[in-house]
Amino acid sequence: MTIGSSGSNPARRDLNLADMSPAYFALVMATGIVSLAASMMEHPNLALALFVLNIGQYAVLWLLYALRAWRYPRRFFGDMVAHLAGPGYFTTVAGTGILASQFMILRENIAAGAALWALAVVLWVCLTYTIFTAFTVRREKPTLDKGINGGWLLAVVATQALSVSTALLAARIDQPYRLELNLMALSMWLWGGMLYIWMMSLIFYRYAFFRFSPGDLAPPYWINMGAMAISTLAGSLLILNAPHAPYLMSLLPFLKGFTVFYWATGTWWIPMLLLLGIWRYGYERFPFEYDPLYWGAVFPLGMYAACTWQMDRAMEFGFLSALPHAFLYIALAAWTVTFVGMVRSLARGLPLHARG
What's CA 234's distance to the chain center, in Å? Predict the structure, then answer.
């Protein structure tokens, strides 16, 4: 991955790095969940290839973020406390949690998985209380229609990614920490659900009562569905962990009910988002070109495939098996198109920032 143009203009390279999207770790999120979904549905070679690629992407993105923080600290930390840009940093938490899950599931590497999980915990604590404290105390704030979009739900995704990786870690270690980790996974799952209710209420209000232009429908609006999909995945893992934690067993009806509730809510969003996409690109003729934010649309597709497969297994339905396979192929197609667009964009020296 290059930073700037194919020419030798250092100013252009610096500009691209300065404007780099805070949400670029959605690339790791999308690649990781497609890899995990492929593994679930018995495509081991594809899962492993995407896993190896994801390790490289993760390392490169941390290098770029570190360079941006060093060379442009005002821009880096200024974006962190901006209402539209700040939530994009939660992709670092979700991407780290998903890569931790890949290590644990695909390679059974508990040490690497636990190390990444610990990093995700630290990132979650730092970003959650930095970003939302800054939003609360700043004197000048945007109006609701200018200050919120689907990207805010990345805070939910980050929380649930931590729940998922915690539940996976709990299933792979013995006492004395198994019970504590399951409680942490449960707590993060519940907090993520509450956070979704708060944020989705504001986002839906913005949908219905403020002017909506094609430019407002940025790809992170797919996180409306993706946040519910990863909540479904976390709930399914808690159900599977219940035999090893008595308090989860006592909550089993509650866990199953809310897991299906999350899945049904995420499923409801799919036709709505498709219709809005047709309106944006078909009716309004909004230009379709690569944007880093499109990784925020690939991720929910892969997550829906993974969560549906896992829920079908945890709930012992047995009749949803075709749906996750279909969404895996859809997610893989979307990932391929977006990845090719990213490579072409970087080869042409286009900036790494989000245009939306």
Answer: 13
